[in-house]
Design brief:
Length: about 260
Amino acid sequence: MSRTVAPLGRRLSEVVEYRRVGAYDILVADDPDGPDPDPGQFYMLAAAERWGGGSDERPFLPRAFSVMRRSAGRLEFMLEAVGPGTTRLGELRPGDGLWIAGPFGIGFAPPRDGRTPLLVGGGVGTAPLAIWQDAIGAPVILGFRDAEHAAGASLLADARVATDDGSVGHKGPVTDLLLAEIGRSAQIEVYSCGPPGMLEAVRVICAEHEIPAQLALESGMACGYGACFGCVVPTTGGYVRLCVDGPVLDASTLERIAHP
């Protein structure tokens, strides 16, 4: 498949905007000379300063993030502080330096056979669906843990929401909303990104109803160029590297999405 190819090496960007949306940090970085990414592609990010841990400040590996949007030479990213690397990135404010490399990987492809696209996301998996919705104007359903996380739905247009605790929208998993959509029409193609358990549930549902689906997977990445083999996942055709053969894979090539 065609893809936007990343310039060689990383480049130093500047954070130009920071905002907090519920449980999430939104970083906007200046990248005037970088190419326009394809929806579903990702970048490797690292703070320009204090990017390390321990008494000797051992450097962290860069972190992979799907691009949420690009406009006017600026890139938007959505992240949640779940460890030392994401916590440090979430501390960045306008004027701080940010190393970026990318865009990497293969993104989403248009719907097949005249099908209607449906976007299904969970948590920070909301991010790549935003840039894809901007491109194709598709309806979106999103699942979150609670009301604080559900605030992330505001980053997309007209999102319908499910929460685990019922504090916003439907009480239950986002797959409940997916099944309801399938009940109305099976002439859809699903685009999904989220935690492994959610993606596996989406994959199974789509397989049972013979609905094509494109899934944006996550895996540990260290380079983005396919050199380290740290992000391999099994498919029906053998192992693939998500950073070069994904992160978007056709659901029909996957027998199962493993939980970490």
